[in-house]
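haha ok so turns out i had the wrong file open the whole time. this is the CORRECT one, sorry everyone. sequence first:
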Amino acid sequence: MLADAHIYFFVALAGLASFLSPCVLPLVPPYLGYLGGTTIDQISEEGGIDRAVWRRVVIASIFFVLGFSTVFIGLGAGASWFGQMIQTYKAELSIVAGFVIMVFGLHFLRVWEINALYSEKRYHADTQGASYLGAYVIGLAFAFGWTPCVGPILATVLAMAANEGSLTTGVSMLAAYSLGLGIPFILAAIAIKPFLGFMHRFRRHLGTMEKVMGLLLVLTGLLFMGGLLADVKAKLVAMVPALGPHAGMIGMVLLVAGIVGIFTSSRGLAIAGFLAVVIGMTLIGGSMNAFGQWLIDTFPFLTQVEGMVTPETLQHDIMRKGAE
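then structure:
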């Protein structure tokens, strides 16, 4: 076991590097916004940020990490019933994940509030913060958004885990990978205290910041549902062929108009704005994979991080360990 300890160490390091990958990095701002949003109305006016609030955000981040770890470890148990279910229904679960993330976004936009996933904390306003269950659920949802676009190390571990004889090894390696990926998120939650302090100094802008968080989550959810939206777009173009050449432009206009509507003070306009954003994203097309590819093309160094921190022989060592 000790002889193979370096494999688990570098797998965890690959998870740490994945934090900067095109499939994870775009989700960091919505994630931080989500954590910050849980405590917008709990910031002390005079005493700074209450330690209990900060502790609650850190614990919520742990539940978030447990959420995506559940999915990754399930994928690591590729030969098990749970692993097979995830693999079989991965596309459908990604759509569900996108919907769940949009629900959280709609909460911040004050368009649709789901009290079952929130615990109420009052401070001058009736804002509700996310419960630990909510943090766990959104962790599950984010994991399904990551899996379509994986790095070479995670892809190797998943390929090895698909072998019936390496279930235990697959689970343990995915646990190490999840630990490596989870550390930056927990550290981000620990460091969120200065961010909340910034919000305290600009309380008059908290409503706008909350809507920005909601918009980021809604857009992320729609990117996760890219496959479904692409099918809808194809059907719309088939029904109205003239729409095809202009779909992207019309979609962009609707997207911009929708964002403007979301940031108005009218709840009716906010709902109309959300619908315009959904239709606009549908006509524009795109998914998390497409967005990830754009990031790779724009910031090519993001794809080199994993290779810089892991040995060239790591993939071979992983497959050898799985074959034992």
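DSSP finds 16 helices and two strands in the chain.
again sry for the mixup
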